[in-house]
TrEMBL record:
Active site (UniProt): 339
Origin organism lineage: Bacteria, Pseudomonadati, Pseudomonadota, Alphaproteobacteria, Rhodospirillales
Keyword Chaperone on entry: no
Species whose genome carries this gene: Thalassospira lucentensis
Residue ranges annotated for the CobB/CobQ-like glutamine amidotransferase domain, each copy included: 257-444
Family: Belongs to the CobB/CobQ family. CobQ subfamily. Belongs to the CobB/CbiA family.
Protein name, as recorded: Cobyrinate a,c-diamide synthase
Length: 445
């Protein structure tokens, strides 16, 4: 019998705002639970590539995205069932503040909690406040009747006295919401950041040691038994799981897709790749940074986003990579680039210092990181040209998050883009022959 979302053993770690410490706290919880032998699965709310890579490292399993703006309820439930598999608990990190969503007001962590009927553990950064933290918790607990704040973890607590003051206020005013943890301020619970968020997990030589240290701190300061108890009564052992009901509607680029994967091309969603595998497609991976070419039997190439602007010189020197993709384009093999991958498809990339680096030259495009401007938000992309991703008029759903500027973009646009609120952003991306791409990150159709 197929399980409903309400039966899945899911739990959401959320916060009133970004920078509350929920990411590192989630990582510590995942590693602490895994170290205790708890079969835990990981998920991240919304469009994000960087945090899921850390979560996968923390629990030593894959991490998927559950996005309530781009995905339907059926897709979310099916993906959650598949991810939960035979695990005892699915721990999902929220995004931004609990009730913050897209420009149209939807797609928040709270929306996901309501759709999946999952309890929320609210992480409160109590630095600079004491009793007022209880008022914040009370407001969040009463804001939406369909969202249950099941427990609270206090973060960045300054002292035992600080903790006691807040816990006393919570017991007095919110006896039904237990405080299950109080995590002390610690420099050990911080990770370096750059312009798109945390420095990528794969770039941390000492990541495993950091995760073990975070787990030790979190296990001491958080009652893990109470945390696990929040999902007691929900059916465990969902089964092997099948993503077949979670079709995201994106046709594969080919029957053997070569996917760029290294620190410059790290942003590919696991659910999309798994959906292509489910459709019988073979996937192989190669590193442009080490001048690898796609697999010789590949009939299509996917260049995901990442940080090519930090590796312009190496990519410019990657002659084998360049020559192979040029040959594939000449044979009309589909070559698709997203965001950073799109920039690499162009003629040149200008880095933050103003240096020009020659890229693939497969699209009449020049992009610059020297003149930075933030582009951020959910997007729809309506294809104005037929591609391997769909016919003319196909509507794709995803997001945009980059700082690059377009210096030159000539030729045939890929489609028309709009914000979550429906505001027209005009033409987006480029297409030339079988080569196409844009700054748009694809999530589903």
């Amino acid at each position: 019998m197929e399980l409903s979302a309400a039966q899945l053993p899911g739990l959401i770690i959320a916060a009133p705002s970004s920078n509350s410490g929920k990411t590192v706290l989630t990582l510590g919880l995942l590693r602490a639970l895994a170290n205790r032998g708890v079969r835990v699965a990981a998920a991240k709310t919304g469009p994000d590539y960087i945090d899921p890579a850390f979560q996968a490292a923390a629990c030593r399993e894959k991490c998927i995205n559950l996005d309530p703006w781009t995905m339907s309820g059926d897709q979310l439930a099916a993906l959650a069932r598949w991810q939960a598999g035979d695990k005892s608990l699915l721990l999902c990190e929220g995004v931004m503040g609990l009730f913050d969503g897209a420009a149209d007001g939807s797609g928040s962590t709270a929306d996901l909690a309501a759709m999946m009927n999952w309890p929320v553990v609210l992480v409160i950064d109590v630095k600079g406040q004491s009793v007022s933290a209880a008022a914040v918790i009370a407001g969040f607990a009463s804001f939406r009747k369909d969202v249950k704040i099941a427990a609270v973890i206090l973060n960045r607590v300054g002292s035992d006295r600080h903790r006691v003051m807040i816990e006393t206020a919570c017991r007095e005013h919110l006896p039904e919401i237990p405080v299950i943890g109080a995590v002390r301020r610690s420099d050990a619970l911080s990770l370096p950041e750059r312009h798109l968020g945390l420095v990528q997990a794969g770039e941390h030589d000492a990541l495993d040691a950091f995760l073990d240290q975070a787990a030790e701190i979190i296990a001491k300061d958080v009652d893990l038994d109470q945390l696990i108890g929040l999902v007691s009564g929900r059916q465990l052992g969902v089964g092997a799981g099948d993503v077949s009901d979670a079709v995201v509607g994106i046709p594969p680029l080919g029957q053997h897709i070569a996917i760029a994967r290294d620190t410059a091309f790290a942003f590919a969603y696991p659910h999309l790749l798994e959906d292509w595998r489910r459709q019988g497609v073979e996937l192989s991976f190669f590193s442009p940074l080490t001048d690898e070419a796609p697999h010789k039997e590949a009939d299509a190439v996917y260049l995901p986003g990442g940080y090519p602007e930090l590796h312009g010189e190496r990519l410019a020197r990657a002659g084998n990579f360049k020559a192979t993709l040029a040959a594939m384009a000449a044979k009309n093999a589909p070559i698709y680039g997203e965001c950073g991958g799109y920039m690499v498809l162009g003629e040149a990339l200008i880095d933050a210092s103003g240096r020009h680096h020659e890229m693939l030259g497969l699209l009449p495009l020049v992009t610059s990181f020297a003149d930075r401007k933030l582009h951020l938000g959910y997007r729809t992309l309506v294809l104005s040209e037929a591609t391997a991703l769909g016919a003319i008029g196909t509507i794709l759903r995803g997001h945009e998050f980059h700082y690059a500027s377009t210096i030159k973009a000539e030729g045939t646009p890929l489609g028309k883009m709009a914000t979550a609120a429906g505001d027209d952003l005009g033409c987006a991306g480029l297409m030339k022959g079988s080569v196409f791409g844009s700054f748009f990150h694809l999530i589903c159709q």
